[in-house]
Amino acid sequence: MKTAKDISKMQAALLSWYDSEGRTLPWRIRPEDRAAGVTPDPYAVWLSEIMLQQTTVPHATPYWEKFLTEFPTVTNLANAERDRILTLWAGLGYYARGRNLHKCAQIIRDEHGGAFPKTEAQLLKLPGVGPYTAATMAAICFDEATNIVDGNVERVVSRIFRAEIPLPKGKTELRDFAGTLASPKRPGDYGQALMDLGATICSPRSPKCGDCPWQGFCLAHKDSVETDYPKKIKKAKLPIRYGNIYVLKSGGSVLMHQRPDKGLLGGMLGFPGTDWGDTPPAALEGAPSPRNWEKCEDKVRHVFTHFELYLDVYRSETSDQKIEGIWAALDNIADYALPTVMKKALKIAAS
Ligand code: SF4
Fold first, then answer.
1. Residue spans per domain, the chain
2. For the structural domain made of 4-228, what CATH number should be given?
3. Mapped to the 3 state alphabet, what secondary structure does 39-74 carry?
C-alpha cells in the first residue's frame, strides 16, 4: 500500500508527464486544449474505444476516420443500414462489436435524445459498453473520477505494487490497487495518462523505467524484476478446428452467403463451406452442387480468440449464376462486409 502522500505525489507526477509526453491521438483533446475549454465529443470517444478493444491504434485509426466521415453524428449512425456498418467494420474483427455499435446508436437516438448519458452507471447499460469503456468514457467525456483499468493499466499497477496473484485471478486485486491511485483531479487526463504510460513506457518486455514518472514508487523496478510482472497462469494451447470452404466464381463475380446473426462472424458475408469442427471434414463435404472443384495447395490459417482454424480451400468456375446466394462483383469486393478469414480464402483461391 502507498501512503496518501505518495499517492498524491504519484498523481501529480503522472499528470505532469502526460502534459508534456502524452500521445496525441485523433479522438483525444490534449490537456492544453481541455484547459482552454475544448470538450471531447462523446460519440467520437465512444467509437474509438469500441474500435480499440482488441485492436491497435494504427489499425483502428483509419476505421475511426471512415466512420466519422460517413456518419458524423451518433444519429447518422443509428439511421444507417446495418449492412453498411458491417461493411465498413470488415477487417476490424470481433464482429459482434459492429452489430452492437448499431444497436447502441439506436438506443442513444431513441431513448437518450441523441446524446450519450453522462455517468458510468448509465453508460454501462448500453449494448457493447463494458466496465472499461463505461469508466473511460465517463472520465474522459464527463470528468467522473472512475477507476479505468485495461491490460496496460494492469501491467503498470502489478509492477508498482509487485502484485503476486497471477492473472486472470489477480484482476480484482489489480483493480483495487488501481483504485487507490485514481485521481479525483483531472480524472479524464489521469486515466489517459495511465493508459499511455502502459502503452509507451511500461511495455511488456522492455519497460523504459528511466523515462517513467513513477520509477521512484515502483517495487518491481526497485528490485529489477519488472518483467516478472504481471504474474500470469500459463495459457493452455488453443484448440484447433477444421473446415472446408468453397470459392465459386462466375465471370467477374463470386458466390457468397450471409452468415446467421448468431455465432462467430454473425451477419457477415462468407463463402459457402462446412461447419468448423474438431476433425477435418471429408473432401468436398458440403460443397455447392457437384462441379469440378479443385483443391488449392494452401490452406487458410486463422487464429480466433478461442481457437485456431484451418480451412481447406476449393475453387471452381461456373456459368450458372442462378445458384442461390449473393453474387458479389470481384472488382467491388472491398464494398462487402468480408471478414479477414474470408479474404484469406479468396486470396488463396486467386493464387
Ligand atoms: S518503473 Fe518501470 S516497471 Fe515500474 S511502472 Fe515505471 S516503467 Fe513500469
1. 4-228, 240-350
2. 1.10.340.30
3. CCCHHHHHHHHHHHCCCCHHHHHHHHHHHHHHCCCH
Q: Is the dihedral of CA 315, 320, 326, 329 positive or negative?
A: positive
Partnered with residue 295 across adjacent β-strands are: 314
Which residue owns the Cα nearest ligand 1 atom 2?
Answer: 209
Q: Which H or E element spans position 109?
A: helix 96-111
93 SS3 class: coil
pLDDT tens for residues 63-85? 999 999 999 999 999 999 998 99
Q: What is the pLDDT of residues 140-194, one digit of tens each?
A: 999 999 999 999 999 999 999 999 999 989 999 999 999 999 999 999 999 999 9
| 3-class DSSP state of 327 | strand
Fold of 240-350: Nucleoside Triphosphate Pyrophosphohydrolase (3.90.79)
**Rounded CA separation 155/229 (Å):** 7
Residue 240: which H helix or E strand, with range? Answer: strand 240-250
Best residue for ligand 1 mutational test, from 226, 228, 229, 231 (most atoms within 8 Å of Cβ): 226
Within 10 A of 26 (CB to CB), how many other CB atoms are there? Answer: 12
* Binding pocket residue ranges, ligand 1, CB within 6 Å: 156, 159-160, 201-202, 207, 209, 212, 214-215, 218, 220-221, 226
pTM for this one? Answer: 0.76
Ligand 1: nearest atom to the Cα of 213: 6
> Residue 45, CB half-sphere, CA atoms under 13 Å: how many?
24
Q: Whose CA is nearest to atom 8 of ligand 1?
A: 202
CA gap 51, 255 in Å, rounded? 29
Residue nearest to atom 5 of ligand 1 (CA): 156
Phi–psi pair at 211, nearest 5 degrees: -100, 5
